[in-house]
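Researcher: Quick test of sequence recovery. C-alpha cells follow.
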C-alpha cells in the first residue's frame, strides 16, 4: 500500500459489539492506528494519546480507529481499564493488517517472527491514503497525526 492509492475496504468487529467498515467513514477523514497488543505499555500510551486528542481530531473533521489482532473482549477490557474513547477494531485473521502493510516480520531478542508493525494511516475524505507512518515511535505521534489531519 502506498500514499495516493484507494484505502483498502474493511469490515471487522469492534469493541462494544457491532462492526466497523471503511464505508461508514465515506466522505470523512479517518486515522487508523495499528498497535501490536492491547494493554501493553507503548500501545496503552498511544491509545491514551489518541483518546486525549479525540475532540481536536473531531474539530479537524477526522475520526480515529485503533486496530490490533486482539479479540473484541480483550479490546473491551483495554478500553474500560484505560477509559479509551476511540473505537477499537479486532482483526484476528490479519486481513486488514496485511492490506494496510501493518503485518510483517519483526525481531526481538535475536528472534524473528511475524507480528503487527506499529503503523498509522491517514485516509483523506476522498477515500485515498493521504499519509502513512511506519515504525511509529509513540511519544508525540498522535500530535503529529493531528497536525497532518488538520492540514489535509
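Model:
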Amino acid at each position: 500500500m502506498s500514499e495516493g492509492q484507494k484505502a483498502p475496504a474493511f469490515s471487522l468487529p469492534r469493541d462494544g459489539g457491532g462492526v466497523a467498515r471503511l464505508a461508514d467513514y465515506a466522505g470523512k477523514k479517518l486515522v487508523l492506528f495499528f498497535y501490536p497488543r492491547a494493554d501493553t505499555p507503548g500501545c496503552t500510551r498511544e491509545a491514551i494519546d489518541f483518546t486525549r486528542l479525540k475532540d481536536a481530531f473531531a474539530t479537524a473533521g477526522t475520526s480515529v480507529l485503533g486496530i490490533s489482532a486482539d479479540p473484541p473482549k480483550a479490546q473491551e477490557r483495554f478500553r474500560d481499564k484505560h477509559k479509551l474513547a476511540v473505537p477499537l477494531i479486532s482483526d484476528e485473521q490479519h486481513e486488514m493488517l496485511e492490506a494496510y502493510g501493518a503485518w510483517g516480520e519483526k525481531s526481538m531478542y535475536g528472534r524473528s517472527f511475524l507480528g503487527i508493525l506499529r503503523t498509522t494511516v491517514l485516509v483523506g475524505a476522498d477515500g485515498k491514503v493521504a499519509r502513512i507512518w511506519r515504525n511509529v515511535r509513540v511519544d508525540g505521534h498522535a500530535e503529529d497525526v493531528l497536525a497532518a489531519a488538520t492540514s489535509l
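The two ends are 19 Å apart (CA to CA).
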